[in-house]
Batch of 2 targets.
Target 1
Amino acid sequence: MAKAKTAYVCTDCGAEHPKWQGSCAECGAWNTLSEIVLQPAVKSAGAARGGYAGKAAGASQVMPLTAVALTAEARTLTGIGELDRVLGGGLVEGSVVLVGGDPGIGKSTLLLQMLGTLGVQLPSVYVTGEESLAQVASRAQRLGLPLEPLQALAETCIERILEQAAVVKPRVLVIDSIQTIWTELLTAAPGSVSQVRESAARLTRFAKETGTSVFLVGHVTKEGGIAGPRVLEHMVDAVLYFEGESGSRFRVLRAFKNRFGAVNELGVFAMGDKGLREVPNPSAIFLSAHAGPTPGSAVMVTREGTRPLLVEVQALVDQSSLGNPRRVALGLEQNRLAMLLAVLHRHGGVAAYDQDVFINVVGGIRVQETAADLPALLAVLSSLRDRPLPEKTVAFGEVGLSGEIRPVPNGEERLKEAAHHGFRRAIVPKANAPKSGRVGELEVVGVERLGQAIDACR
Ligand code: TYD
Ligand code: MG
């Protein structure tokens, strides 16, 4: 194949340079130039940028939205309920889904298991760039998957993958992983930003043109982003992250971006000797099994995605020997913890400036919503005073800077989940509490100020 024309773009400011240089002449940033392929001019500009909107350049026309024919996306259930939930109700035809996560978390296992059931309905191909065909086959066998519907290809060159795909015409294509894929058009090494970007752009175009659903597996960098900056995340329709603590067998699949469903939707799995098993009722696993109430532990009802979850948050507050005491938050935002401690001091009258404060969400899940504020504060307070919170108590609510407890969305649904799991008391924002003060067996205490919340824990 003829060598395509390439150029270098700055990944910071987007300036284009004909030759590589150490620093960008536009913005002065160092080491940000990355090689890209320049498509021949006959191709539309949209295609050259990896988009697909400009595909039918000649036919585009302004029209009122009322004249647009609405077609429901064709969806197929993958056979793995938790995955379907995170995808927003099944796999959409022609969609591109990026599955990211740390090495060894179970990305390959999940996708292979998915093809084991999905492959029966839709012809599928699993492209492996990391493992040999023999390794894939023996893994499939160990997982107890039917081997007949599984087709695999060991290849890393995008041109050859697309050639094979044009012959086999799969409806689902899994690329494991995008970091191993390279194009002949670029001289950069596989895994470099330009290779990953160009390969992903080609696969995205393929998906949109043929209606094939494409899954891209991506490794996560130390900073937590998917390697190959954020460019990949912009190109695809959905980004799912696989999370979990290395010591724990539970894995959480989270929709980080989804053009076809709710973001932050969670799917929960347990890794066993037969691969990943779904956990359809996950509340119970995020509560640690204490014999009785323990200081420093609070249970919150979080609502990530569309489902309420009971999650335990633990705090350890201990005399610090450092001039600058430690504030460590795992599963919650670090800055939020510092803010909560300031509010606790100012509006709760409890000082923790000479204490190390550690806070952790059980089960390795990450809670991003502000409803975790109140339970996190109560856990800190409980540890500081070495006094457990009352038994069978849950809490949720946002804490404001002036010590007010602010309502959070879907209060009723959260309370129902707590009642369903046998909790007896809930400390929640006043606006989230029902007038009757009860939900089933659950007594609901509505609070407006931090002081009231602290009093309610006595
Ligand atoms: P894998 O899917 O290869 O991870 P990734 O593709 O994200 O790098 O998962 C490998 C891990 O899962 C490995 O540590 C072993 C474990 N595992 C099980 O515990 N049980 C199983 O049945 C399988 C297939 C893997
Ligand atoms: Mg893998």
Target 2
Amino acid sequence: MNSFVFDVPVEGHYHTQWEAPSNIALIKYWGKYRQQLPQNPSISFTLSKCVTSTEIIFSPREDGVKAFEFLFDQKKQPEFHPKIQKFLKRITHYFPALQNHHLSISSQNSFPHSSGIASSASAMAALALCIVDFEKQFNSDLTEEAFLQKASFLARLGSGSAARSIDGPLMVWGQSEAFSQSTDYYAIAPSVDLHPIFRDYQDTVLIVDKGQKRVSSTLGHGLMKGHPFATQRFEQAHTHLNQIKTALILGDVERFIELTEAEALSLHAMMMTSNPHFVLMQPNTLAILQKVEDFRTQTQLPLSFTLDAGANVHLLYPLQDRIPIIDFILKELTKYCQQGQYIEDQVGNGAKKI
Ligand code: PMV
């Protein structure tokens, strides 16, 4: 991946600002090898309202000046520093100019930081986009496609799923037969004709637990090394990816529901059967899953769930069925949320320069 290495001259200040979305995986990435490469391919919907907005001023660095300063919500928040430092160190190989520039970074999220919604995907993607934007003014070979690929490549080095927080409405990350351009190194927006029903699909996130993640991503992915079901799980993800591609093109919501729910439960099954094991669903998570299933049976409305590595529930449904579904969510499900908190989002089209 040396084609991604680029240096720039040390001159002047450069200011840039990008807004990057969060994403929700339909086929889950769980397990990695080497430097943040996925053991299986994944596909996600890009979201539209849950975003991180990041502004960076690049200035030539004088000797002895530290590499970056960081404000989150206009405040100094040193707890974020180690992650940013690690990220910048990792990507310096691909962008040596980071060694002689000072980065003044300021970020904010559109969603509450302590809502239990992982912000690392949108945060790392926004940082990566600002950095590639800086490179772009010196690198005339950087076409729009190459720009997005490099941003995804760098974002991946910060957090695997961040590779998918660049473009939209669908993002595929990880080499698979189903998508000919797919690669482990960066995510692509596949050129499939997404059925209209999915173009504005809804994602209402029920915040069951606002706490910090109980399993760090690094530990979680590490649990797949030597996991008794690893091979089957990776094969399953490939099969599901092929199948969901067809469902997404045909607008086959029934098949989409089967596959996304199976994926969420497989992800949690992997965590429950690893050593050590983790049960991340909580009683309220299970109560929600049960109610969703009952509601679907009774009303025949296509409401389904997916889960990340935590207790919160993402509820997926078509915009055309929003009125009865949101009514059900408010009356029957928000009581299982911490302080009744939930976030309404929907499929979006990718990052934007501000
Ligand atoms: O990006 P990471 O390393 O935090 O891993 C995220 C993994 C899942 O959210 C559980 C699944 C996915 O594909 O997003």
